Amino acid sequence: MVAQSEPFNCDFNAYLFQYNDIYALDLASGSSYLVAENITPGNVNGVGYNSTDGFLWGYLSTPSTPSSTIVRIGNDYSVEQYTIPELPSGNKYVGDISKDGVYYFKAGGSSYYKVDINPESDSYLEYLGKFSLS
Fold first, then answer.
1. What phi and psi, each to the nearest 5 degrees, are found at residue 133?
2. Which candidate, 36, 86, 23, 90, places its Cα nearest to that of 63?
3. Are 117 and 52 within 8 A, CB to CB?
4. Are 95 and 104 in contact (CB under 8 A)?
5. pTM of the full predicted structure?
6. Residue 19: in which H helix or E strand, if any?
7. Burial of 91 by CB count in 10 Å (0-12 exposed, 13-18 middle, 19+ buried)?
8. How crowded is the C-beta side of 1, counted as CA atoms within 13 Å?
9. 69 CB burial (10 A radius; 0-12, 13-18, 19+)
10. Where are the beta strands (DSSP E) in the chain?
């Protein structure tokens, strides 16, 4: 049995994802350093902090299979992958998470997508739909 990773504690860093590597950014000094590399088989984009569970979440871009995969990242930088079959294929570049644990992300164009990532919700890990910015 594999132990689950732990959530992040407040550590006063920001995190920058470059391809499948993670850098910590010291917000006071502006310095950065590599904290984890090659965490996934594809690039991670649209990462945000989920205050409902304390984890970072992002979209796993190609060449992952399937391409409708989101990832949860723990404080040890281990990754859990979740396939959301309803998500359209293709890369998503921008994302953030609401205080209620709804993950918003988008690619190019005027459409964005929502997935519930609040572990206390009845619709946890469910696709909430495609919406249009108008």
1. -80, 115
2. 90
3. yes
4. yes
5. 0.91
6. none
7. middle
8. 2
9. buried
10. 13-18, 21-26, 32-36, 44-50, 55-60, 69-73, 79-83, 94-97, 102-106, 111-116, 127-132
Tokens of 61: 């871009």
pLDDT digits (tens, 9 = 90+) for 1-51: 455 789 998 778 899 999 999 999 999 899 999 999 999 988 999 999 999
Mean of per-residue pLDDT scores for the chain? 91
Is the separation of the CB atoms in 113 and 87 below 8 Å? yes
Residue type, 109: G
Instruction: Please compute, for residue 15, the number of CA atoms within 13 A of its CA located in the half-sphere on the CB side.
Output: 25
Token pair listed for 37:
């590399």
